Amino acid sequence: MTWLPIIMLAVIAFTVAAVVLRLPRRGWTMLGAVLTLGLAGYAIQGNPGMAGSPKQAVGGEAQSGEVVVSVRRALFDTGQSPPSYLTVSDAFARRGRYESAAKLLRSGLQKNPNDAEGWLALANALVEHAHGQVTPAALLAFERSEAAMPAHPGPAYFLGIAYLRSSKPNEARDVWAQLLEKSPVDAPWRADLQARIEMIDAMMANMATDAP
Predict the structure, then answer these.
(1) Of 21, 13, 18, 57, which is closest to residue 39 (Cα–Cα)?
(2) Global pTM?
(3) Considering the domain 3-46+59-210 in this protein, what is its CATH number?
């Protein structure tokens, strides 16, 4: 089982940051969300036990929906209840019913055009409905989410994951590199972003080496 050591590493990373590096308590929530994002990226992007010819896992859509919704909520949780349309759409997304989730979100966003979390939820629902592809509609939703909350890492992070799932590592790297460049020096997500960018660089270098 590969999840146990990965979760242990996340716990160790949190402990080191909070205790050894003395990260202020106000940053603990964001750090926890960032570590959860890393686990989500692992869960969404692939499976180390997968055979050489990937196949769609049974029940994979609902499992992916649960992960995406949980991580997004952790990033945006302010202690206040989300709007009803977002709560209901999340229930659909958790069950893998992304088309229904997207319809509810579109209706709710017509009355709440500045809801950054709502736009990100719509972007994620559209990506999942398209089986991991970044459609023009999904890209527009990502852009609207970032415009509503420019300093938030969520839109760029999820967009990067979506690009990787679409077999577009260069686009993913560009998105994450831009996020890293504009992030504060002490932002808790910088280390994870840097690691992901280095992962893409190593992957591209290996591809170039293996090319005839």
Answers:
(1) 13
(2) 0.72
(3) 1.25.40.10
